[in-house]
Each structure stands twice: as C-alpha cells, then as structure tokens.
Write a structure and sequence with these properties.
The structure is a homotrimer. With about 140 residues, chain A is of the alpha+beta class. Chain A is built from three helices and eight strands, in the order ββαββααββββ. Chain A has helices at about 25-35, 60-70, 90-100, and strands at about 5-15, 20, 40-45, 50-55, 100-110, 110, 120-125, 130-140. In chain A, the strands form two sheets. Chain A has a five-stranded antiparallel beta sheet, with helices on one face. A three-stranded antiparallel beta sheet of chain A has the order 2-7-4. In chain A, β5 and β6 form a beta hairpin. Chains in contact: A-B, A-C, B-C. Chains B and C meet through β4, α2 and β5 of B and β3, α3 and β8 of C.
C-alpha cells in the first residue's frame, strides 16, 4: 500500500457554553477512508472554542467541567481590558488556551486508538450559539 | 528512502499521583526504527492520567507540580457532582484536560528534537497505582 | 506527486514575559516549500517558554493573558521548593505545562488551515530576554 492523505471539514452547531461529543462523526469519516495505519489530526479554527478528550460515560463530568472553568477563569469584567464582544470574550480566549486547539491520534487496525472511555469534545466558551469549523486531516495507508 | 510507519504500545505502571519519566523508553524505540527524519506521536489512552513535557533535571520540579495541581484543582467533594470512583475522580479528569493527552515531536538526524532539559512524563492523577497504556506512532524515512 | 518532508529551525529572541507572534515566519516557510496538502508541526525546545494559538487582532488580549497567568500561577517563593533560577523559574514550568509545547496544523490548498483570527504565539515565561528555538516539520505533497 501507499501512504495517502485526506482532508475534511466538519461543522458543529453549538448551543452556548458546554461540551459537544463529535467522536462518532470523526470515527465514521475515518472508517470510510479505508486507512489501516495512520495519523488523524483535528484542528479547531477558533480562539473562543476548543477541543478536549474527556470521559464519554457520565454526563455529570461535562457539567462539572463547565462549572470548574467558570471558577478557574471567572467572567469578571474588572479582570480584563479586552471585552470587545462582551464579558465572555476574554474568558473564552483563556479557556481555549488552557485546553486544546489541536489533537492528533494514531490509527491502528483501521480505527483510532482512543481508550475505552475517551471521546472528542468541542468545548464552546461563548454564551451564544455558534457555528464552529473543525478540520480533519488523515495520513496513512 | 521511502516513508514508512511504525506503531508500538508502552505500558507504564504508576504508583499513585506523580510524574513518571518515560523519555528513555521512547528514545530507544525510535532509535531502533532506523528513521532519519520523521514525526513521532505519543497518545495516552486515559482520561485520568496525562502527558507533559517537563524539566528532567531537578526532582523538586516534579514535587512542585504535584502540589500546584492539588491547589489548582482541589479534591473537594463539594465542588463536583461526579464522584463515581471517589474524590480523586473528577479532579483527575480536570487535571488531564489542563495538561496533554497527545504530543507529536519531529525526528531529525535519527533522534527526537527534544531540548536539552526536556523529558516526557506520564502524570498520574489517581491515588491508587494504575496500569497505563501509551501508543507510539512513528512516520518517517 | 509524492509525499516529502522538510525541517527548519526558527530562532525567536524574546524580551521578557509576553507573547510574540511568529505566524508570518511559519507561513512564509510553508509557502516556499510548495506543499499543496500536508501537516505542519511546531515544537518548542524549552520548558520555560511555550506555544499558544491566540487571537491576532486586539493587543489587549495579550496583556490580559500575561496578567491572567500571573494570577493563576503566582510568583510566590513560599509555594515552590524549586527556585534554582529565581522566583520566575517554577512558575515558568507550570505556565508551560498549562499551555502548549507542540502544535500540528493541517495544510490545504497550499496554506495552513488557521482560522481568520488565529495566530501562533511564543509565550515567554522568564523575566529576562531569551533566545528560543522552535523546530518546524512539514510533511506533505
């Protein structure tokens, strides 16, 4: 076999702050590529939404995550000079910095080597619903 | 030369919270592949243990890191709804989010381009010893 | 076309704590490689400076980021055992852990798929000016 590449754009509609599981959409796209061994990269094209790998079982985990980040990076206007787009603007940038903009996961035996409890989440940091763009890149054979 | 890929699974036995240096095991595996130029990816298959690149010299650095994360993400049951596996469960997920699940490092002249003081560490976030699985993927020529 | 690789070293002179935009230098190097589709990886060879993707518009964002990290990871000597290189030593390691040492971004139609507002920044965590080394690796066709 020969190494080859594929690119894909995913759009995720968010509904305000919170985590959206998009593991299934990535897994389906990878499966359809027919790659046995390779490397999948996920890129989030925003600075106020981010990626994270988290537990895909208990829903309470996602609620605790949102609450934790509200405390760690407070929406307190007195703390930030930058608020062009409102009080959630600067906290959104900081929460993005503390989590991930990119993830690369190996593919083995035709599927991503995620652990049993691992899922991909888009973490929306703005209050209002947004249309988010994710780029997938797969290289393999 | 032609681009080729290799995959490998590493098992790391942890002894409760703390950092385990596994740079040597990765470097040996990479050296044995005979790759001159390429990209090495490390994936951690867990949501309560993570990866980090840290200073490999002073042991006090690792102790300070563990202590810092105890303060930044406290094991305080009143803060979290999710505690299926005990008070260290939710803090483990959050500490994983704040550090890394994946790292990709270029290979040049047959070895990873780590800086002089850089080492790869597995950061265990659970109190009890665990058996952790890491996947290595190398692509190069 | 055939998949091929390129490596490059960038040196960034920092002027104490703060963020330095180096997106243009990466984009120029990528453009000169003549790669249509691929994956670009950036590696920072230090444990007291890091990488981040941030908004490239408002300068106030960078000031807020620096201020936020001073609060999140205080330069308080009483908190850390390790201070071989001064009070900014251990906070520099922790701030590096909380941000990124590596970023990998897909290349499509000859350029990186960065969002409109995304830029690459080197985040210097030491007080004194430093000479920082970044490695770029590009794989594509």
């Amino acid at each position: 076999m020969t190494l080859r590449q594929s690119l894909h754009r995913l759009t995720i509609e968010t509904r305000g702050k919170g985590l959206t599981d998009f593991t299934g959409r990535v897994a389906s796209w990878v499966a359809a590529r027919g790659i046995e061994t390779g490397l999948l990269t996920i890129w989030c094209r925003h600075t106020s939404a981010s990626l994270t790998v988290q537990e895909n079982a208990a829903p309470a985990v996602r609620e605790d995550i949102v609450r934790f980040f509200e405390t760690l990076v407070p929406e307190d206007p007195h703390r930030y000079a930058h608020d062009d787009e409102g009080p959630d603007d600067m906290p959104a940038h900081l929460r993005t910095m503390l989590t991930d903009t990119q993830l690369s996961v190996p593919v083995a035996e035709g599927q991503m080597v995620l652990g049993t409890w691992q899922g991909f989440y888009l973490f929306e940091h703005r209050r209002q619903p947004q249309r988010r763009e994710i780029v997938l890149h797969l290289l393999g054979e």
